[in-house]
Give the backbone structure.
Amino acid sequence: MPGGPLTLRGAAGGGTVLSGAVPLGSTRVQPSWMHGAAPGAGAEDFSAAAEAGYAFFAGDRRLMPTRMPTVGYDRRALQTVGAAGDKVAIRLRPDEFERLAGQPNLWVSGYLAYDWLREVLPVTGSDPETKSLIVDRLREFPPRAIGRIAVYNADLGPGAPGAVVLDRGPRGPSIRLGASGQDVEVIVSRGVVVLKDARWIRLANLAIERSFGPALAVDGSRNVSVEDCYVGQTIGTGLRIDGGEDVAVRRCVVADTTGTGVTVSGGDRPSLTESRHRIEDTVVAWFGQVRLAPGLSLSGVGATVSGCLIVHGPHWGIQVVGNEHSVAGNEFADLVRETDDAGVIYMGRDWTQRGNRIADNFIHDFGPIDRTDPASVFGIYLDDQFSGVEIIGNVIAGGRYGVLVGGGRDNHVVGNLFVAPREAGIFMDDRGLAWQQAYGKPDSVLMKKLHAVDIQSPTWRARYPALAAFPGDRPGAPVGNAFEDNLAVDAPVAKAWRASTVPFLRETGSRTVSPSGLSAWSAQAIGALAASLRPGAPPAPPADRRSALAGLAYFDRAESGGP
């Protein structure tokens, strides 16, 4: 690259838009990807069919399929029906049943079995006797007696402005639009910008938007930078980095995606070679609108997320898979708003994915907003014996626990501040000696993952000496965890699941204080925050990052681009 990278730069004021959508013109426009992916698809993965209803835009606003209720979920009685037990009846009120029964293109989305599992299912029939809609369902988990359900794509008549109704008729899929007041565009592209096996490329000041699949894909590329760009309004993932090395995304906004906002993968696990991919000073917002997906997903080795704002999501803020990743200096807010048994930062079910560092993050305003029962949500969730993580210097406000160590080993939780968690700052269990004892058997999922990498190689032995002694050292026992110098406001610092967990809980230098016990400069601010988290208190106002991001031309789209 003599003289520097090839730069593709838009207008300085943010007016350059690369779009995968075209004016609709009439309902006769039928993008090829809609064929076979509109209502009428099978129940196995109906999300792709549902996403067809999110391909339309009026101005900067995505038009949504009709939804009942318009916000949140209704609690509905559920019952397994059908000779094979592969259908579920969803009970409606009589007036609702009369309105919806017989409509041919309905689907439902909601939580039928668990509050961490959002399902998208086609309505395939109705039962006048019980006033129920019937859905096909192939999940292995039986439905609960009461589920949280929303009904989509109902024909609500011409008085539903800005709404989309998909109709799979005899001549193929078509759409009907409510009055939008603006010209309508529809996605026709399976991507907007794709860099494959590229070197020394710089993208700057561009809006890259409206595609089926990632609007921006950087695959197998090196030394690529994406700066001051907007990426979003996609069906599926917004921005994908797959393979390669040294790809940097800086000062961007990734927003309004039906799936994950940003996926990052790269590096080599056998050699622990790092990808050096970086997401820096970037806003990731309004993700997981159809598929229950995180704002960011990291996999492989050695990616970094720093200085970012991750907001407005139904589930995790970030999922970490692999080794030697760093999530540091970020702010997470308005997350895990629909789910339970979930964390803002999530890692799970592996003894070997070590070396990850979660440091200096601010996690606040998270947890379900439409539930009256206490939710089990956590700021940082190390699920199912995940091990070898450093959790250092984070501020976590609220949640049932700030950090949950779910039976893993060699996790270090040091110097964190927990503000008014409902039960404790840290919770640890020994599930590997209880309901997960079978994970210690040779054919278990954890053992298979353990044997998938050579933990005795010189590289792995040098980097993870404690892992080299495994599995001879008490599989399932939460050994090697250390909790040091943590501070909790209005709650205990740490809590053990049961008496047998206590010998494994090593806590030193930690303390619990009330806001009045803090120094004068922090007592007022932290005291107010703690008070706002108590049951019945009004929510604290969300943090204002607008001033810090005032120079970013596309920031308004992250604030206004969601549902």
Q: What stands out?
A: Residues 520-532 form the longest helix (13 residues). Residues 26-44, 538-563 have pLDDT under 50 and may be disordered. Residues 158 and 178 are 6 Å apart (CA to CA). The helical segments are 47-51, 94-100, 445-451, 458-463, 465-468, 520-532, 555-560.
